[in-house]
Protein 1
Amino acid sequence: MDNRFATAFVIACVLSLISTVYMAASIGTDFWYEYRSPVQENSSDLNKSTWDDFLGDEADEKTYNDALFRYNGTMGLWRRCITIPQNTHWYTPPERTESFDVVTKCMSFTLNEQFMEKYVDPGNHNSGIDLLRTYLWRCQFLLPFVSLGLMCFGALIGLCACICRSLYPTIATGILHLLAGLCTLGSVSCYVAGIELLHQKLVLPENVSGEFGWSFCLACISAPLQFMASALFIWAAHTNRKEYTLMKAYRVA
């Protein structure tokens, strides 16, 4: 094997490993989107019913999003979290200080919630199904797992290529990484579109802002790494095969 192709193969493997780690971390963390609300909102008189509704099993889309807006919420593909004061005083609120202990309360999305229909008016079951938001949500949930699966399958093919001491099978690895990159890019695009459509339905309260978190950024970084790994795998396999064919023809001649 030519040193050029071996070097390209090693670089592609490193890029593939990094993108896999980034994608797995992105799927498993809860910071795809973060809301920032004023400190006064969290240190005011506590609304216990809002917390109970947020942590309840039957919280609808509007209920948990209202809590996310008010209590510095974060949201991932699997869980939603809010940050609230640790010590609650329901009858006589204590004097407010500049700092207070807070605790993060999280609630996982069930599989039913992941595939549940989204409504034109969030929380209103009589407003009709919003098909666009429904399928965007499902795609943003499923595509990262498809991407991760394709990369793992590509890694197995690459391992077989190493055992066989041949670069030609890595063309399949490159194609799988290309498909994985498209899935990751599609997931990121679906998530952005879904968030924008949600904020058109549920306008953020005054002095509340939202931004994409570091989990989302990891997914964004993973996609170009997958494309670069794909390009290197395909180039190394195709060029090596081409040179081998030319060399074989030259020897026959």
Protein 2
Amino acid sequence: MKNGGDVVGFEGKRDSAFQMVENGVKGNNGNLFYTGSYESLYVLGQCEGNMGNDDCGDCIASAEEQVKVQCGDSISAQVYLQGCYLSYSFYPNGVPGTISSSSSSPGTGRHQHTERTVALAVGGLAALGFLIVCLLFLKSALKKKSGKRGGY
């Protein structure tokens, strides 16, 4: 199967998934990135960092129109426009790595939030470790400097 025409309601499912991406990049607090799944479709939208959320959403909407015109009912597509990127893939047996493919994945937001929290924690610990090493180096340097003064 190379096109979604064999799947009942494919275009409607794809359009709903596209709407998720468009809403996701608009309401993602400046993240300009969204990924998710909807009824066996995996979708991803991303914009360049210099775009605002509304401009990103408009760019993604333009990419959606390009998909409809250029790709028809293809089961997979990637569209690169100046400023944004849109990709989707249809998985007849459900999107890999998701529990349910019947609706948008409810755990996607929590998963991204957990990844962000872990990244912040690891980054914070690395910064704290670097600060401690710097302080120990400074302490050592000051000891050496004060030790040389006492030797005269």
Protein 3
Amino acid sequence: MDFLMSGLAACGACLFTNPLEVVKTRMQLQGELQAPGTYQRHYRNVFHAFITIGRVDGLAALQKGLAPALLYQFLMNGIRLGTYGLAEAGGYLHTAEGTLSPPRSAAAGALAGVMGAYLGSPIYMVKTHLQAQAASEIAVGHQYKHQGMFQALSEIGQKHGLVGLWRGALGGLPRVIIGSSTQLCTFSSTKDLITQWEILPPQSWKVALAAAMVSGIAVVLAMTPFDVVSTRLYNQPTDSQGKHL
């Protein structure tokens, strides 16, 4: 049940955050392997990117890649949060005194994240391809011509086999290790501190909300450099043998 509820919760959030993922993907691909000032900046900032994509590609383009994004969130976070929850419930993350152990929490978060991300890597790759696809006047990065998630998975599998489907998976693991360990560790630690300091009522939903906000900031700061690398690896073009060009 933990796995199912974790996956469904992540999917619910994805419906609202997917437009941000589209914008993030395109901004991360912009200027790839080009010196600053030598390329046209189609997206000057987050707000300009939203307006530009909506104006040129249409408002529906802000939800590009939604199907693989939902599936990836269900698989990845169902496994990640479910596994971490089982470890926490089993007492593996606490010391003999009953306090949360940050090293154990970080290690469990990293391991749980790796399992979920590696299994869902083909879905994440296709999501990146679809979100990068744009009209020629605002296109950045390599432009794949996928028609949808299943067509993309089928085409990549037929051309390059299982190796092609998991292309970029190892390069994406540092992103997940850093992000997952930071998120789960800071979330649990912040909840404990809020409860210990009696800042908010112990059973209040505000405790989880405050912990999630602190955790989210920490994740962005720690994970962004690895996220840029991962996005570019997944979106790189390949030759007939499936090797990066």
Protein 4
Amino acid sequence: MRSTSPATCSRSWSISEDSLRRYVFHASENCIQELLSASDSDRSVESSNVNDGWKILAIDNGMEISKRRSGSLHTFRSRWLLKSVSAQQFITVANAIDAAKQWDPDLVEARYIKDLEENLSIIRLRFGDKSKPLFRNREFIVYERRETMDDGTLVIAVASLPKEIADGLHPKQNNAIRGLLLQSGWVVEKLEDGSCMVTYIVQLDPAGWLPKCFVNRFNTKLVMIIENLKNQVLACSTNGDA
């Protein structure tokens, strides 16, 4: 019978802000490269299915949803073209943490815990007891790094902090289950006609036991989130032009 030390279960690390900044910077470098690689693969259905491991799940209203196995979990990817919407217009809406609940109704709370640099932050995301099973009573302590590449491509890298660091920054609430986001985020490519190509990557470990079908049906929620966000971006763009 395997025993677990109570001290091990509850341990947390106190870390200086400088050490935290260095850790997040280096961790997010790898995340950015993974996001760019996933967004840079051939956009044809044939290549996506055969060459790089991505399996197309749906193509609906100009939006492609696909997934790729990553160890025991799946990484999900959505891509779509936003015509007449600039990369900066999209990022302004997608990165507005106060407005996140408008395009993800399961989200109960999203707030900044700490700003490490102008483009580097720690955020808490909390989902309530009325959220869908995959997110019910989950919370995520994540870093968010925002970078502009030399070609103008905008990248937002998001991933969970290690459990011990997260517990030191923000102790887990009694009824919450702390999930993990693994190398997730946005890649928004500028196009010459003032439009943009958006790629959203997410790999999720919800933590706690869930039927496998719930985890693998994440693409259904992803379609809903992206559709809501796309409509919000288009509405903001139209209002801005008015």
